[in-house]
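Before going further, it is useful to explain how the protein records used in this thesis are read. An example of such a record is reproduced below.

***
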Amino acid sequence: MPGPDKVFKETLMAQKRLKPYIHNTPVFTSESINKLIGKQVYFKCDNLQRTGSFKLRGACNAVLKLKESSPNVQGVVTRSSGNHGMGVAYAAQKCGLQSKVVIRQGTAKVKGDALQVYGAEVIYCNPTPADSIAAVQRVQQETGYTMISSFENDDVLFGQGTVGLEFFDQVSDLDAVFIPLCGGSLTASVAAVAKYRSPNTKVYAVEPEGKGLEKCMREGNTSSWPSPPNYITTIAEAIQLQYVAKQNFPLLCELVEKEVFAVTDSELVEAMMLVFQRLKLVVEPSGAAGLAAVMSSRMKEVCGDDVQKVGIILSGGNVDLDNLPWGQRQ
C-alpha cells in the first residue's frame, strides 16, 4: 500500500501525464456565501472538469498507464455510479480502446446517456454491489478486458490527487478543506498532497449520514461494515457505498481529521441549491457535500473560530435536470 511520500511523487508524475487530457479547473468565490457562513470559502470547481467530475483524473491516469504497460490491450471494463465510468470511457476513447461500463438500474439518465456519448457499451445491473461485481466478472471472462476499479487501483488514487496539486497552487494557506468521500481515493490523495504542499491545512472527509466512517477511523478498522458493502439510502448516489478501499484507509487514518462530517439529504439539497443560486453552477448532490458540511451545525463544534479560510471541492455536476431534488421536497 502506498504511503504519503509515494502518493505525492506519483501524483506529480500523473499531473504531467494528464495535462493534455484534463482541465486545470477554476476556483470560484462568492461574497454572499462568505457572509452567510462567516468564513472565506473557496470552491474548487471540478464539476467543470471534462466528463463533469473529478473522476476523470484517476480514470484517465489508470487507462493511460495501462496503455503504456500493455500496448496490445483491447479494452477496459468498470463498474460505476456513472462518473468514474464516464472517465474510463473518455480515456479509452482517447487511447483507441473499447470500453464497457456496468451501472445499476436507477442511475441518473444523464449519466447513462453520457457514457454512450463517450463510446462505452452500457450494461445495467440490479442495484446491489454484488450484482455489479458479478456483471464485471462476466464481461472479463467473455472479452478479456481489463478492469479499471474506481477504488482498488493505485493509479486512480494518484490521478485524483492532481485536484490537490492545483487547488493548493491556486489558493495558499487554506485552514481546512472539505472533501466528499466514497471509496476514499480523492480524500486520501488530496490529504497526501496537503502534507507536502499545504501542511497546515486540515483535511476533513464528508459522507452521507449512515456511512459511519468516523467510528471506523477511531477504531482503526472497517470490521463493522458489511461485506460485500451496502448502498446507503441517500440522494448522493456517487458517494452512497458503505466502503473505503484497502489502500486508502491507512492514508485516511494517518492524514485526515478523525472528525468526519455526516450530512443529511436535506443538508445536501440546501447546499446544492445555494451553489445553483449564488455560484450559478450545476452541481450534483455529492458535489455539494463539502458545502453542506461547512453549513452544518457541527462546523462550529469541530472547527470553532480557528478555521476561517475554507476550501471545498465541488466534485461533480452530472445531475438529472429533469429531477432536481428540491422539486421533490414536501
User: Anything to note?
Assistant: The longest helix spans residues 4-18.
